[in-house]
Amino acid sequence: MHQDMPSMNPDLPAPRPGQQAEFARQLKLMITKHLSFPSIVTWVIYNEGWGQLNTTDFELTRMVKNSDPTRPVLYVTGFHDHGAGDFHDNHHYPYPQCGTPFYSLPSSPYDPSRNRIAVQGEFGGIGHIPGRHNLWNVQSQLDNLNQTYEITSTIDIWNYRATRFVEDLRDQAQFFNCSGGVYTQTTDVEGETNGLLTYDRRVLRPNLERWQKLISEIYAAPHQAAGKHEVSQAKPDKSQLLLPALVIK
């Protein structure tokens, strides 16, 4: 799992020096408390720039690496990447832009010369409105069911659209520098109807056979790419250390 540091409020002004020092203290405490959990594969300092200053990127990354030299550091997932840490992480809906030269603001293009792991921290978000009995039956949600990245009218169309974006991730693993992605999301939640399962867990949207085939193709993508190019005997850089994987958030 990717262990996030709880973010500061993105709607508040930038943190003052005392607030930033407290954030750093709690970040170090979180790492110390969770060092022994083997399921944690990386530490995530910021999400989409929430509470992020432009002057602390490398300082906080060094602190995290000194606290735990055994795990890579994802300085910021999503936006406002300034080159710190071991990952280049892109957030984009609905389609991925993982390890690619094309991008959308406020993300940035992947730079292979920086020797960083490219991941798609979030993508997907295809909505489908089920029957009212499958929803979180609260009027505030019912009034905003169409507030998602894309709405589909049937489960068949939901599968058609969602698998197109998983295919994009597969292709980016084969033809660019993508090492993994996180599809949003496992279940519908109170304010979003873009899950693999509905809020009551009664309706499963994915065509399992089709999704299983696509996921296996994602894992096979780097081997297919290697077959088209001369395989180097040099020590692999960081961008080659992770096999592509699809995770459901």
Automatic annotation (TrEMBL):
GO molecular-function terms, A-Z: hydrolase activity, hydrolyzing O-glycosyl compounds
Segments forming domain Glycoside hydrolase family 2 catalytic: 17-218
Domain of life: Eukaryota
One BP term from GO: carbohydrate metabolic process
Official protein name in the record: Glycoside hydrolase family 2 catalytic domain-containing protein
Species in which this protein is naturally found: Puccinia graminis f. sp. tritici
